[in-house]
Write a structure and sequence with these properties.
heterodimer, A: alpha/beta, eight-stranded mixed β-sheet, 8 strands, 40% helix, B: alpha+beta, six-stranded antiparallel β-sheet, 33% strand, disordered N terminus, hydrolase (chain A), metalloprotease (chain A), metallocarboxypeptidase activity (chain A), Carboxypeptidase A1 (chain A)
């Protein structure tokens, strides 16, 4: 009998070892490595299961290829509280952004109730976080082409696939700063919101009606940007946004000395039409910002995994600055 | 083929007590094609200054050119910060940029502070590529050390045979195996030539990833190296595959041949770009 028990135990041990590759909780999830779509979606479910009072998962739509578009909602209650939107991974090859999104999600639940600043934010505002904003592209970067940027939608009349989801928003759509060629990396799509990944966010934000800050996260270049991208003209709130950006960057740099520049998209990076934060700003979401995370070209999109956590940590300080500012400056 | 002249003698090694700043400049003076003189129609007003992007653009062009001409895979530089600069643009929209910038050692792990200072004049011919570069830098790495590092890299490369087939460097997670590091550095050296040639007033490049590496035998013991590099052009966000063939020996000039695909449409099978160069043995105009 004892031998049988032993062999049962051995078998169980083997099975446990096999499953160890898969995190059983967000506490033994490996934040210092890049993950697959499935692993990130598992993480999301674990996080919700572990923090049911604080976190819920919403599906705002489905991607072109039918993958669910999940958004995490962090809320301590209320009814349609003013909220902050954060998206990562809209450009699928920018892997440090999805990885940072995962880290931010964990950070929020860890710090709520412990860190006074984030606790104050969540006691009055909700946070919406879409970690994999372009899941079709992301799956493609794993399976086929690590440097894929766009969606995976098919354009009739072209052999080329995908539109640039950050040229597809209804703000200066189709103007200079995007391409009309389906084969281009900055192809704007056949019309504004033609990409379901974009439309889903647009519908969500409009239906919510109470988003007060909108933050899109990209890599690389180490920049903090505010609108506009589609035209040179300064936004009406330029002075205020510039001040907020300045203090957010100061917070970021304080951690590891990582240098960031800031300014409008147009003057700091290049002319870009149909971008998410231009649309958000024009919807009346004053605190609209876009980040370009590490690095400045040494590794580019292929940022070594060892830099995920430092990148997320420093970026979080900038995000917190914006979150707190939004809390303290209701409009 | 011109007979080789020995390179200009470098100043003697600094005295041990001398601070880094006292190291003599002008240890590496490299000139590109001469910029035309002529009346300049407009200058940026002092209060506005040239767009910050233009100065960085010029710095990158200067660095690609410098890296190629220095021909040393163990002493590659990247931009640290632009310190000052000014620009002039003429009636033909040709742009001359004078600037001072600091650099870092590319090969080092991050955190290593070695800020070598450079000054450069870069001439952009409107939207045309191949900016003319005149650049002078303080030496980042002492000459004998650089030669030793190059030779060490050379030996490491010689030991790698061709199990490089199908390997991407870095891998998807941004990791480069230490044994493959020399391959990356040599590829970066060759790619510097390509990136310099393709840089324009508005386009700039980074090396994203390396694949399809093949190393060939040569009779004289040089490294003969064939690879595909994926360049990332920043303003268009395009990924441009370039096939590069380089031949290198420590201390000898680098030869580079390349063939880039300009991908715009899959139907458009034409649109390739070729170039080749041999780094001259003398530091002179070409």
């Amino acid at each position: 009998m004892i031998e049988d028990v032993q062999s049962l135990l051995d078998e169980e041990q083997e099975q446990m070892l096999a499953f160890q590759a898969r995190a059983s909780s967000t506490d033994n999830f490996n934040y210092a490595t890049y993950h697959s779509l499935e692993e990130i979606y598992d993480f999301i479910d674990l996080l919700v299961a572990e923090n049911p009072k604080l976190v819920s998962k919403l599906q705002i739509g489905s991607s072109y290829e039918g993958r669910p578009l999940y958004v995490l909602k962090f809320s301590t209650g209320g009814k349609n509280r003013p909220a902050i939107w954060i998206d990562t991974g809209i450009h699928s090859r920018e892997w440090v952004t999805q990885a940072s999104g995962v880290w931010f999600a964990k950070k929020i639940v860890q710090d709520y109730g412990r860190d006074p600043a984030i606790t104050a934010v969540l006691d009055s505002l909700d946070i919406f976080l879409e970690i994999v904003t372009n899941p079709d592209g992301f799956a493609y970067t794993h399976s086929t082409n690590r440097l894929w940027r766009k969606t995976r939608s098919h354009t009739s009349g072209s052999l080329c696939v995908g539109a640039d989801p950050n040229r597809n928003w209804d703000a200066g759509f189709g103007l200079a700063g995007a391409s009309s060629s389906p084969c281009s990396e900055t192809y704007h799509g056949k019309s504004a919101n033609s990409e379901v990944e974009v439309k889903s966010i647009v519908d969500f934000v409009k239906d919510h009606g109470n988003i007060k800050a909108f933050i899109s996260i990209h890599s690389y270049s180490q920049l903090l940007l505010y609108p506009y991208g589609y035209k040179k003209a300064a936004v009406a709130d330029q002075k205020e946004l510039d001040e907020v950006a300045k203090s957010a960057v100061a917070a970021l740099t304080s951690l590891y000395g990582t240098k960031f520049q800031y300014g409008s998209i147009y003057t700091t990076i290049y002319q870009a039409s149909g971008s998410s934060i231009d649309w958000a700003y024009n919807q009346g979401i004053k605190y609209s910002f876009s980040f370009e995370l590490r690095d400045t070209g040494r590794n580019g999109f292929l940022l070594p995994a060892s830099q995920i956590i430092p990148t997320a940590e420093e970026t979080w300080l900038a995000l917190q600055t914006i979150l707190e500012y939004t809390l303290n400056h209701p409009y | 083929m011109q007979p080789r002249r020995p390179p200009p003698p470098a100043p003697g090694p600094p005295r041990p007590a001398a601070p880094l700043l006292a190291l003599p400049l002008l240890l590496l003076a490299v000139q590109g094609a001469a910029a035309p003189t002529g009346p300049e129609a407009a200058e940026w007003r002092p209060d506005t200054g040239p767009p910050h992007g233009l100065l960085r653009q010029a710095a990158r062009a200067a660095l690609h050119f410098l890296n190629f001409r220095a021909g040393s895979p163990s002493a590659l530089r990247v931009l640290a910060a632009v310190q000052e600069g000014r620009a002039r643009i003429n009636a033909k929209k040709e742009c001359t940029v004078d600037l001072v910038f600091t650099t870092e050692h590319y090969n080092s792990e991050e955190g290593e502070e070695r800020l070598g200072k450079c000054s450069a004049r870069v001439f952009f011919r409107n939207q045309k590529p191949r900016p003319a570069v005149n650049v002078t830098c303080a030496r980042l790495m002492e000459k004998t050390k650089r030669q030793q590092e190059d030779y060490r890299l050379y030996k490491q490369m010689k030991q790698l045979r061709n199990p490089l087939d199908g390997v991407s460097i870095p891998d998807s997670h941004g990791h480069i195996d230490p044994s493959l590091r020399p391959v990356w550095e040599l590829a970066f050296l060759g790619s510097s030539y390509v990136m310099w040639e393709k840089t324009t007033r508005f386009l700039h490049y980074y090396m994203a990833q390396l694949s399809g590496v093949k190393q060939w035998e040569t009779n004289d013991g040089a490294i003969d190296f064939d690879y595909t590099v994926l360049l990332h052009e920043f303003s268009t966000q395009e990924i441009i595959p370039c096939r590069i063939h380089l031949v290198w020996s420590p201390g000898k000039p680098l030869t580079v041949k390349y063939h880039c695909q300009e991908l715009l449409a899959p139907e458009d099978a034409s649109g390739t770009e070729e170039g080749s160069a041999v780094a001259p043995t003398e530091l002179s105009n070409f």
